[in-house]
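hiii, so i know i said id send this last week but things got crazy w the move. better late than never?? heres the sequnce for the chain we talked about at the cafe, plus the structure i predicted for it. fair warning i was half asleep when i ran it
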Amino acid sequence: MSLETMMRKAVLSGVCAGLAWFSTAQAETTGPTEADLDRVFQQVLADPTNLDLAFEYAAIATALGDFEAAISSLERMLIYNPDLPRVQVELGVLYFRLGSYGAAKSYFEQALSAPDMPEPARQRVNEYLAQIERATSRHRLAYGFSAGLRYQSNANTAPETTVLFSDIPVQLDPSFRKEADVNVFVSGNLRHLYDFGGQNGDLMETNAGVYITRQFSVDDLDIIYGEVNTGPRVHVAPGSGITIRPYLSASYLMLSEDPYQGTIGGGARLSVPLNQQLSLGLEASGRYADYRSSGLRPTADNLDSREIAAEAELMFQPLDNLRLSSGAHGRFIDARADFQSYNEFGVRVTASFDILAPVSLTTGPSEWTFVLDTRGMTRDYDAPNTIVSTQSREEQEIRADAQMHVPLSANISLFSGVGWREVTSNIPNYAVENFTVMGGVSGRF
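okay and structure toks below
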């Protein structure tokens, strides 16, 4: 047999196999029709006590999305025989899908009272009851975590080798020069919502987070950080979707197990939906930061400051799998030492998009998420630090980060990312460049 003949047969076999698969797929995906529903309905009218027909009618109606018709059929069955746990379970599921949690719970509890109910069905009912409890409770809780490893080319954020001392260029002591390092990190976040119970959907929102790192070499930069904010989220006008959230906030930071910074403050955020794809966020905040001096950082209390900040954010979702946001902010820091006081202005652009997983690590289809984030900032300081230079400090900072998230299950994902940060300054002591690579696992519940 010639090579050409073999290729033709292979192509023909492939086409036939493809046609056969397509035909099978079409047959499998062809569901019941309205004609099937009418046909079985006529049979139910002719024999209303036939439970098999009633079940068939309910199944077809459910497949067609006509839950009300399915419910009518099943409830009619209970008129003739009220002791049918299977029917009670199916009615509970249908009412659950309609969002009628009270009726669903009533039918589920009736089904559970049956002594001969199979254990798999009992477990299924209990799962639905747990979902109803979460959906109807005024308290809602969500939490997440991430953990992994991160490499930094400049873990101690050191400048280049030449710095200024009283405007005189000197060589930086080798013990203070930039050092690459790897750290292990873990973070966690928790959100609690309390529904006030009104028709507007107003609620109390509390967020808490913690972040911990341990360096392999530069252990004087080990971090323990925690923050919390809480406040009501209320609708400005019924039906407008506009909400405002005033809040109180606090945070605490430890470096190398020494207390370093504590803050307390508050603010407010206004969220305005402009249309189905576009929304605007406006936020203003203020806080007081208290720094603690230590043996490693003897002048940290010079950083004690009052901060006022404002931010505007525009969020746009042109496609289901594409989310864009851009923002601008201003920060005004009034520190105890004038040379630590500054004004900062910045912009950022973030894009997040999903693609169908080329290799799925879950049991079913999944999507990989990519996040690109870029930021630019400028800072102008109020006064010079004369120990370093007679010039006031001026800085420009650029950041770029890219991450990829690959789901392992509905709640657990792998992530990896790279990042770059560069600070340029008119004073070389504050010029910094750092490149990072990280990876780990995260969960959302």
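btw The longest strand covers residues 258-273. thought thatd interest u
miss u guys!!
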